[in-house]
Specification:
Jelly Rolls; six-stranded antiparallel β-sheet; about 15% helix; alpha+beta; four-stranded antiparallel β-sheet; about 210 residues
């Protein structure tokens, strides 16, 4: 088939536009059976933002777990080791220090008694939970194309149809409906917010033995 015929054959079928507004599982990303009450999640977030602000530079975060007794938030509490390719050599480069996720076993005392503590308890009953943060992605922004040492769980609190998550070659939207999504962020991935509202997720690192290479 010639290039012209191939293009004309494609144009003969109307574009499919519905599935992109929902979740489509793929390699390295799927929905768990566990779920939470979205209204309670949103209220807990609103209550927290009433007493504290976002932390971090280049992205917005609120840590929900910490190292035992640690009262000061460090750069590694908010970020940590990641690997990416930075130039046309395509060689991998590691950035920042490797984080011991197992050390983040204490839920931040200021947030005890909130629904977010219930979320932490439910997750911890099923998985080894490390750093658990609320992450906010502003409108029209994108993360770097990178991989992390550990996989993560995502619980969307606020999102929009233009917010997408990409793992290797699979791209999908994560609706905010109380669902918990497993994301194998040991693979290359990125998150983008191409919408007109902020994207806010709870992100919990799974403290399995990390990838170190």
């Amino acid at each position: 088939m010639s290039d012209q015929a191939a293009v004309e054959a494609e144009l003969a079928d109307p574009p499919e536009t519905q599935s992109v507004a929902g979740f489509v599982p793929g390699p390295g990303i799927w929905r768990l059976d566990l779920s939470f009450d979205l209204a309670k999640l949103q209220k807990a977030l609103s209550d927290i933002l009433g007493v504290t602000g976002w932390q971090g530079e280049g992205f917005k975060a609120i840590p929900l777990t910490r190292r035992q007794g640690a009262e000061q938030v460090t750069a590694n509490d908010l970020s940590g080791r990641y690997t990416l390719r930075v130039d046309d050599s395509y060689e991998e480069v590691m950035r920042e220090e490797l984080v011991d996720e197992r050390a983040y076993s204490e839920f931040v005392p200021d947030f005890r008694g909130t629904y977010l503590e219930t979320v932490h308890q439910e997750l911890s009953a099923r998985f080894p939970i490390g750093r658990m943060r609320i992450l906010c992605k502003d409108v029209l922004t994108c993360n770097s194309w990178h991989r992390d040492p550990e996989p993560r769980l995502h619980i969307p609190i606020h999102t929009n149809p233009g917010s997408l998550f990409v793992v290797n070659h699979h791209c999908t939207h994560l609706p905010a409906d109380g669902s918990v999504y497993f994301t194998d962020t040991r693979r290359y991935h990125t998150a983008m917010n191409g919408g007109e509202d902020q994207r806010v997720h709870i992100v919990a690192a799974l403290a399995y033995p990390p990838v170190t290479a």
